[in-house]
Every structure is written in C-alpha cells, then in structure tokens.
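Narrative of accomplishments. A recurring question from our advisory board has been how the design workflow behaves on a single, concrete structure rather than in aggregate. To address it, we present the structure tokens for one chain from the evaluation set, followed by the sequence designed for it. No filtering or post-editing was applied between the two.
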C-alpha cells in the first residue's frame, strides 16, 4: 500500500551534516529527464560493441524513430539519476553492481476489483517486448536517444480491473537501504514515489520498460522494471517499481512534495515554463560535447497531437 502522507525532514534527523548542507544543492541540480518518441527503422549493429547484458527474448521492432540516431550505450548506462545509489551521475553504475533484481514482485492495490501481486517473470512472459526510441531530455540541456524495450503500462493495469473511483495511479520504488546505499541518507523522503492521472497511465505511449537496446535493464537504469512517460520530464519515470496503487485523490510524489515550486505533479515538457533557475527552451544531445548546437524543446516533447487532449481546459503554466 502506498502511504499518501507528507513527511518533513528536519536537519536533526540527518546524521551526515555535510549531506544536509548540500541538500538544496542536490535538489537544484537534479537532472529532470523528459522523453519523446519518433518513428525509426535503424540497425543497432554499429552500437553492438558497446552493448552488454542479457538479451531479451522475442523482441519485436516497431516502426518508431527512423530519423534518430541512438545515444551510445555507454553514455545511457553511465550518466544516470538514481538517488537510491547516490546523487552524482556516475554513482548508480558504481553502487548498483550487487543490486538483486530476482525475485521481484509488484504489489497492485487500491481502487480495483482484482488487487494482487505479479512477479517479474510473469511480466516478462506475459507481454511482447517492443523496441522504441525515446529522446530523453535533461533540464540542463542534455538529451538522450534510447531504444527502450517494454510494453504499454495500460496493458498491465487492465489486468487488475481499476474501478471508476481510480482517478490516479501511484507508484513506489523499492526501499532497501542495505542494497541501495543512497537511502541511508535523508536526501529524499524514501521510498521514492510518483504518480499519474488514470488517463495518463492508460495512454498507449506510457510504457513499462524492462530493457533497453535489446538487453535487460541494467541496475543503474531502473532494473528490473521502470516507467517511461515520453512527454514528461524524466523524474516522473520512476525506477525499480514494487508498488502500484489506484486512488481517487492526487497521490503524494517525492519531488513535487519536497520542492513544489520547482517540480510539479504534471511535469509535462513545456518550453514556455522555465525552471526557477534556468530556461527549458533548448536541449543538447548527450555525448555531442558542450559546444554542440542546442535544439529547441517541443511542447509535450513533440507529442502534442497525441496527448494534448489529456489536458483540455488545464492551465499548463499553473499546472506544471
């Protein structure tokens, strides 16, 4: 069960004084990733020397993204935000090496007719793995192009038969400080929580990912299963999910609770809504170099035609 409570973090609760002093710096510098999709039909053979991991069975390619070149695997898997394993971009790959993702169970609860649990092996066996390319965008201008493997979240949620009272879907990451050393510090209110409206969760572009580049998700990228929401900033794409909860009220979410003036619940990619300390009008491809030309950021990450109707009548500047 996801507990929708608000927990303040007094400085006296933080054992490492240096971490407390840097806490606001961590919040201010957190990379907010967003994502987008485009059609593709390109071979990954040129990236084969970089790709490591267990190959996913029965991967079926979609026709998504033929004008995009994937970011090098080594960049996608070594430059990560996953505070459970550390606040620096290189911490997750170093600190998640021994993270155990088997066995793994997701508990589904709340406003649904068939609450229960589902194991990762059942998830992998029950859905076709599809290759999709998403352009991941970071608030401080960096972007990634990632071939995600997975399936539509709605296909899984329908199994649990949400009722008419299910207006939102809340998600929770594993809470295990022994495996996730970042959770030993009160940088965030652990466990990490996120949420979507039921319409967003059921949208066919909203994806549960169990792999990338045709291999199982690396630990540092959110193994064994994570969310990918292509028209939102990436902090919405919660990693290592263990809980899904249908609710009739807007759920507690980690970043929008800790810094509501910076990170809103909706978190739609919007070049017209600036972060308090920087513009979000442009982005740059990761690996291109700091002098590479920036590209204009698109509303909903280029998915206005597909998702704008979800926000009909909603002021996107107030509801950021």
């Amino acid at each position: 069960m996801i507990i929708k409570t608000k927990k303040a973090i007094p400085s006296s609760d933080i054992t490492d004084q240096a971490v407390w002093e840097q806490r606001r710096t961590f919040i201010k510098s957190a990379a907010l990733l967003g994502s987008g999709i485009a059609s593709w039909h390109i071979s990954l053979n040129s990236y084969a020397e970089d790709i490591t991991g267990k190959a996913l069975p029965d991967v079926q390619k979609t026709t998504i993204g033929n004008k995009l070149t994937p970011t090098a695997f080594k960049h996608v898997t070594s430059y990560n935000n996953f505070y459970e394993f550390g606040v620096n971009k290189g911490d997750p790959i170093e600190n998640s090496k021994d993270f155990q993702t088997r066995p793994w169970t997701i508990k589904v609860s709340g406003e649904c007719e068939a609450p229960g649990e589902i194991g990762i092996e059942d998830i992998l066996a029950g859905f076709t793995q599809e290759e999709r390319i998403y352009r991941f965008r970071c608030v401080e201008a960096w972007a990634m192009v990632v071939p995600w493997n997975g399936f539509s979240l709605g296909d899984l949620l329908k199994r649990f038969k949400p009722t008419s009272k299910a207006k939102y879907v809340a998600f929770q990451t594993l809470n295990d400080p022994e495996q996730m050393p970042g959770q030993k510090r009160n940088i965030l209110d652990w466990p990490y929580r996120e949420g979507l409206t039921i319409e967003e969760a059921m949208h066919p572009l909203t994806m549960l990912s169990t792999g990338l580049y045709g291999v199982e998700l690396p630990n540092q990228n959110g193994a064994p299963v994570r969310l990918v929401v292509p028209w939102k900033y990436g902090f919405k794409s919660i990693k290592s999910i263990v809980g899904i909860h249908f609710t009739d009220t807007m759920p507690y979410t980690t970043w929008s609770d800790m810094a509501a003036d910076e990170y809103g619940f909706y978190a739609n990619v919007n070049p017209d809504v600036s972060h308090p300390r920087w513009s979000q009008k442009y982005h740059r491809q990761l690996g291109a170099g700091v002098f590479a030309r920036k590209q204009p950021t698109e509303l909903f990450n280029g998915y206005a035609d597909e998702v704008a109707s979800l926000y009909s009548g909603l002021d996107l500047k107030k509801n950021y």
